[in-house]
Amino acid sequence: MIPEKVQKVLSANGLSAKEFAPGSTATSVLAAQQLGVTVGQIAKSLLFIGKDGRYFMVVCPGDRRVSSSKLKAVTGVKSRMASADEALAATGFGPGGVCPFGLDGGVALFIDRSLSAYPTIFPAGGTDSSGIPMTFDQLVSITGGGVGDFLSENAEEQA
Asked: If you average pLDDT over residues 100-113, what whole number do you get?
């Protein structure tokens, strides 16, 4: 079931989530298989924590990795991936279901511009069994995230 805070955002923007069996969209590869799309269309939300304690989320294609040096250039601080517990505490969402909206404002959000290459992208809907079809422009408008280049030069599929 889609969390209430996510459903409110969806309803306010005329969007709806696709829901599947629990755990069926927990990785970008699984989500793409379940949705019948390319892994790159999965808008994975990765949470980082800076050495100063601030949280940063980067939304990027499911088949790519975030460049730590590019993230540091934007945030001014070295960061690491947040643990599952840290992600849950900061966003209210568990691994495989981190959603880029419905956040309380304590997380700075960045969106990689390469997602704009796809007519439809699919961020998680707050569960590890959901995907939300939307456009890049809708994602930017709904989240207010900063758009930029945050990807490593090495394209790798992540499971």
From this structure: 92
8-65 tens-digit pLDDT: 999 999 999 999 999 889 899 999 999 999 999 999 999 999 999 999 999 999 999 9
> Which domains are delineated in the chain?
4-148 (3.90.960.10)
What's the pTM? 0.93
Structural tokens at position 18: 């696709």
- The pLDDT score that the predictor gives to residue 154 is 61
SS3 readout for the chain: CCCHHHHHHHHHCCCCCEECCCCCCCCHHHHHHHHCCCHHHEEEEEEEEECCCCEEEEEEECCCCECHHHHHHHHCCCEEECCHHHHHHHHCCCCCCCCCCCCCCCEEEEEEHHHHHCCCEEECCCCCCEECCECHHHHHHHHCCEEECCECCCCCCCC
